[in-house]
Automatic annotation (TrEMBL):
Sequence intervals crossing the membrane: 36-62, 102-123, 144-164, 187-215, 235-258, 292-312
Name of the protein in question: Sugar ABC transporter permease
Similarity section: Belongs to the binding-protein-dependent transport system permease family.
Predominant cellular place of this UniProt entry's protein: membrane
Entry's Gene Ontology BP terms: transmembrane transport
Cited SUPFAM superfamilies: MetI-like
Amino acid sequence: MRTLTQKKANLPKWGNNARAVSKHQKKLLLKRFAPVYLLILPAAAFTFVFSYIPLGGLIVAFKDYDMFKGFLESPWAGNYGMANIIAIFQNEELMGSISNTVILSVLNLLISFPAPVILALMINELRLGKFKKVVQTISYMPHFLSWISVIGLTMVFFGEYGPINDIFSLILGDDYTRVLYLSKQEYFLPILLGLNLWKTVGWNSIIYIAAMAAVDPQLYEAAMIDGAGKWKQMLNITLPGISVTIILIFVMNIGGILNSNFELVFGLKNAFIDFETIDTVIYKNGLQQRGYSVATALGLVRGIIGLGLTLLANGASKKINGVSIF
């Protein structure tokens, strides 16, 4: 038998030796997971180059930027550098773009956020393996189309002599008058919402399907023994089981409430449509009219509001549900 003295001799010593052991363990972990860190390195470098280095350009928001003088030599804007930010809230077009972006994003959130959850719940209930795979494949496919391809297909389908008009003409007969849907203001927003839903719903459902796979199957077996049907199982087991995932995704989506799909909006806009978002105004002011300072200020305001909304939603989620992203 080992004596008490021998046992004490094998216990780790504290002080400087503990630090040495800790450093040694860190080196071992670093060596063990070196391939993983190498995989992360390209993504980290990409993020640093394209997301962090450009932050220095935010100084343009506080200057009357002159491209010939550069960032440092350009004079500061009036009102202690705040003139460009003040101009945003005094310009009707810029405020209108913010309003349109909020309306579009909120409607997208109300429609496109619950849709993947519903689709995932429906797919999860399918029992025929082959049919389930077919449904998943069909729902994922639109994600792999570029937005320019989606815009091209939309112009074909919603054109004056496209399939949509042909179907209505076939149903209603000679009384039907063909409609240029993409030239009608009242159809523009519904088309944007529908296209975004069609392209993203399948792909966004993947994370919820994965979360459902982690729910303990024994809970379903116990519920079946108690006489619970599929609907009650879904409400009392599946949804609570993926609630953490739903909350985290919702918190992250709240931060992008002032982001709009620039490619889709810009690609479908035409001379008959009056609909500007923050992204299209930044493009128009920054690249077409060379109003770099105001465009940068608008982007800065959007980023600050997005950060504030993320922190607010995260704090509320942490306080109410005990779930947060940080």
